[in-house]
Amino acid sequence: MKKYFSVGEAAKAVHTTSETLRHYDRIGLVKPSKKDEWTSYRYYTEQDIVRLNTVRALQLMDLPLREIKKVLEYDDLEKIVDFLAQAEKKADEKIAALQYSKSKIQLAKADYEKKLRGQQKFNSIFLKEYPERVILLSDTLEKPTLDNLWNYLSHFYEKAPPALKDQFSFEDLAGIYSENGLTRLFAVCTRYAEIDGLKVLPKGKYLCAGCTEENREQTLRELLHTARTKYGAEPAFTVQIIVISGILHWNYEVQVYIGNENAGHEAESQERI
Fold first, then answer.
1. Which domain holds residue 168?
2. Residue-level pLDDT at 122
3. What average pLDDT does range 117-141 have in this prediction?
4. Of the four, 28, 122, 124, 214, which is 20 to 30 A from 246 by CA?
5. Same domain for 68 and 132?
6. pLDDT tens column, 15-37
7. Inside any domain, residue 51
8. In CATH, what number is assigned to the domain containing residue 148?
9. What is the pLDDT of residue 260?
10. What would the mean pLDDT of 161-178 be, rounded to a whole number?
11. d(CA 11, CA 260)
C-alpha cells in the first residue's frame, strides 16, 4: 500500500513551503500523485518526494524552473543520467568555490578578532616594550589612503633593487614614521638587505596610545608631553602604527620612544649604514 504525504508534510520533507509545491503543481513541474476531488487536497508519494528533491537540488544550481521541467520530461534515461552527471560536476565546483570563500572569510575573521583582542582602549596612555625593529621608509608616501593601503607592501617590494628583491619580506602592517619634520609611510622588515631608506627603531620602552584620525595630533602632543615631563625623554622620532578597524576604516597606535633601561635614555632612531 502506497504511503501518501499531505502538501504540508511533503513541503517539510523537502525543506520548502506548501505554496511552492502548489506552484510546482500549477506549472506542471511536479504534480501530486493524488488529489481529492471534493477537497482538492494534494497528496504526494515517496516517488513524488524524490522528484521534488531533484527539483530543489537543480534550483540550487541556478537552473530556471522551465529548464528543470524540460529535463524531467526526458524519456531517454541516458540523457537524464548525462544531465545529472553534469549537474553533479557543477555542484562539486560550486562547493569547492564556497569552501575557498569560506576559508578566506575565516582568515579575515581571525585577523579582525586578533586586532580586536590587541586593540587598546583609546586615549589611554600605556607603556609597551618593543624589540629592535628595522623599517623601510617610502620615498614618496606620506599618509595612508585607500589607494596606497590596498596592496600596501607591493610599494616596498618595488623599492628594492631587482637583484635584492628576494632578500626582503615584511610584516603585514603599515605605519607612519616622523623625524625632524619628515613624515613617511613605512613597512617593518622581517628580512632585508642593505639599501637606502632603512631605519632601526631601537629596542626599549615606548609610550603608546590608540587614537582616531580626528584626535591623532592631540594624542601625539600628549604623549610627547608625558615623555618629557614624566620620563625626562626628548624623543627625536615618533611612530604611528595603522590599525585596521573596519573594511574601509583605520585608526592609529601612536608610539613615542622613551629609552632602553639597559642603554640609558637614547631616543634617536639609527640610520642604517
1. 126-271
2. 56
3. 83
4. 124
5. no
6. 999 999 999 999 999 999 998 88
7. yes
8. 3.20.80
9. 77
10. 94
11. 71
CATH number of domain containing 42: 1.10.1660.10
At 65, list the grid cell: 524552473
For residues 46 and 146, state if they share a domain. Answer: no
φ, ψ of residue 83 in degrees (nearest 5): -65, -45
Each as own residue / partner, the long-range contacts of residues 242-245 (CB below 8 Å, 24 or more positions apart, any chain) are 242/144, 242/149, 242/173, 242/174, 242/175, 242/176, 243/115, 243/119, 243/210, 244/112, 244/115, 245/115, 245/119
In the predicted structure, residue 76 carries a pLDDT above the cut 80? no
Select from 73, 92, 108 the last residue of a domain: 73
Q: What is the pTM of this model?
A: 0.55
Check if the beta carbon of residue 235 is closer than 8 Å to that of residue 258. yes
Which stretches within 139-232 are classed as H helix?
A: 146-149, 152-159, 216-231
In terms of Cβ atoms closer than 10 Å to its own Cβ (0-12, 13-18, 19+), residue 61 is: middle
